[in-house]
Amino acid sequence: MAADVEKAQRAAEGSSPTIFSKILDGSIPANIIYKDDQCVAFRDVAPQAPVHFLVIPRRPIPRISRVAESDAQLLGHLLLVASKTAKAEGLEDGYRVVINDGKQGAQSVYHLHLHVLGGRQMGWPPG
């Protein structure tokens, strides 16, 4: 956990291209489990639960705190894809959706992404 916080503290907003843009352009491979014209879902390379995947928009949005009214449809679509993909991954008993924002939110990649974690009992509080 401390390593994740340190990584987030070193991350720079606006650094381009991000690892996610490289996944989107195919220059970095990913285990893609869903894709459409607006987003892509793929398995996390360092899973924190038995099922851990990310949902990212194709259009880069650096942070959830920087979205605009015009992003409402895309944000809703990301959540629908998270739900549909969680169901396809067998997470009938529930799961957690996490969006990190900024350094104090432990965001380490400045391309909006939803973490979907499941397959075990989640604890509370989360952080």
From TrEMBL:
GO terms for molecular function: catalytic activity. Signal peptide: none annotated. It comes from the Eukaryota. Pfam families: HIT (PF01230). Residues 19-127 form the HIT domain. InterPro entries: Histidine_triad_CS, Histidine_triad_HIT, HIT-like, HIT-like_sf. It catalyses: adenosine 5'-phosphoramidate + H2O = NH4(+) + AMP. A motif (Histidine triad motif) lies at residues 111-115. The active site is at H113 (tele-amp-histidine intermediate). Belongs to the HINT family. This is Histidine triad nucleotide binding protein 2. It comes from Podarcis muralis. The lineage of its organism: Eukaryota, Metazoa, Chordata, Craniata, Vertebrata. The gene is HINT2.
